[in-house]
Design a protein that fits this description.
4 helices; globular; about 85% helix; mainly alpha
Length: about 140
């Protein structure tokens, strides 16, 4: 059976989203572990705990998404530019996630876990779209 170019492109896109999701699961586990460690063990404010967890997940995310998900092979100065873009995207999604936690905790749910899950979902949508179409855009 011969696949059309459109079907092959669709399969590649599904694989890419699958890879992004697997990296995202690992990032989320790192993020949640650091967040709850800071928040529950050290009783650090949820915003600072969110920054700590998010930063740990972000470092892992850049490495795995660059090399594996988006198969980005750039080197040299371009990596620095991509790292700046990646950091910008994550600053945007971190700000949104803190806002979502605050709004969720204040108006919707009493559980920090539910608020954190909602914030993570919002951040993942922002991240995927901006990574794909801005940070790791193929030339």
């Amino acid at each position: 059976m011969i696949y059309s170019w459109t079907k092959l492109k669709r399969i590649k896109q599904i694989i890419e989203i699958g890879k992004f999701s697997m990296v995202g699961i690992l990032n989320t586990l790192i993020d949640f572990a650091v967040f709850f460690f800071c928040y529950s063990i050290f009783h650090i404010n949820y915003s600072l705990s969110q920054i700590s967890g998010y930063t740990a997940g972000t470092i892992n995310s850049f490495i795995l998404n660059k090399k594996w998900t988006f198969e980005d092979r750039t080197t040299g100065k371009i990596i620095f530019i991509k790292a700046i873009k990646f950091g910008t995207v994550n600053a945007i999604s971190l700000t949104c996630s803190i806002f979502v936690i605050k709004i969720a905790k204040t108006y919707w749910v009493s559980s920090i876990l539910i608020a954190k899950i909602l914030a993570t979902l919002c951040a993942q949508i922002i991240n995927y779209l901006l990574y794909k179409y801005w940070v790791f855009l193929k030339d």
